[in-house]
Amino acid sequence: MAAVTTRVLVATARPYDVTLALCEAGYEVIYVGEQPAQALLAAAEQEDVAAILLPTDTGELADSGFRIIEVAGSTYADVVAQLP
After folding, report:
1. Once rounded to an integer, what is the mean pLDDT over residues 75-79?
2. In this structure, are residues 53 and 33 in contact, taking their beta carbons and an 8 Å threshold?
3. Domains in the chain, ordered, with CATH?
4. Tens-place pLDDT, residues 27-61
5. Which of 15, 36, 68, 78 could cross-link to 19 by cystine, CB 3.0-4.6 Å?
6. pTM to 2 decimal places
7. Is 69 helix (H, G, I), strand (E, B) or coil?
């Protein structure tokens, strides 16, 4: 039986170290770049991810991060913030 891979949505302008570390740890990374909150949630739903990784060091996403966490927290297993 094949192992189930956890899918993670990464929404940051600089994904290099983060996505590499996640891939090496066995996660499947779906990179969407910086997008408005509603677009991120739509992508997360479409891609059926278990977690959303958000940056805390960019304007729009940092400002909308709490809203994403509030909405997505009831749907997704985890909402993770990337530290600057």
Report:
1. 60
2. no
3. 7-82 (3.40.50.280)
4. 999 998 888 778 888 898 899 888 888 766 655 55
5. 15
6. 0.72
7. helix
CB atoms within 10 A of CB 81: 16
| CA distances, 49 to each of 12, 15, 36, 63, 72 (Å) | 16, 17, 17, 22, 11
Report the C-alpha gap between 30 and 11 in whole angstroms: 9
CB atoms within 10 A of CB 19: 18
Token pair recorded at residue 68:
């994403």
Instruction: Assess whether pLDDT exceeds 70 at residue 13.
Output: yes
DSSP 27: P
| Structure token pair of residue 53 | 């990784």
